[in-house]
Amino acid sequence: MEHDDVSVQRVQPYQAVKTYLCPGCNQDIAPGTGHLVAVPVAAPDERRHWHHGCWAARAQRRPGRLR
Ligand SMILES: [Zn+2]
Asked: Which among 16, 3, 14 has a CA at the least distance from the CA of 49?
């Protein structure tokens, strides 16, 4: 399902082969860590990787809205 024009996909631990920076907490997501990737439908290049907890907290702060 799309969420406000952002496609959210689950990244399994075996798929996380490099370190990403989570914009929710500005900390690294270590390789091998399951997390989420949010891809704006209108701008697929601007995909962002999030910790599960950070994404959930963000969604509660700004229901239905990504910037
Ligand atoms: Zn985070």
From this structure: 16
**CA separation, residue 2 to residues 5, 6, 9, 16, 40 (Å):** 6, 6, 10, 22, 9
pLDDT tens by residue, 30-54: 999 999 999 999 999 999 999 999 9
Q: How far away, in angstroms, is 51 Cα from ligand 1 center?
A: 4
Residue 66 Cα to ligand 1 midpoint, Å, equals 16
> Is the entire prediction scored with pTM above 0.85?
no
Sheet containing 6-11: which strands, arranged edge to edge?
Answer: 2-3, 6-11, 35-40, 48-50
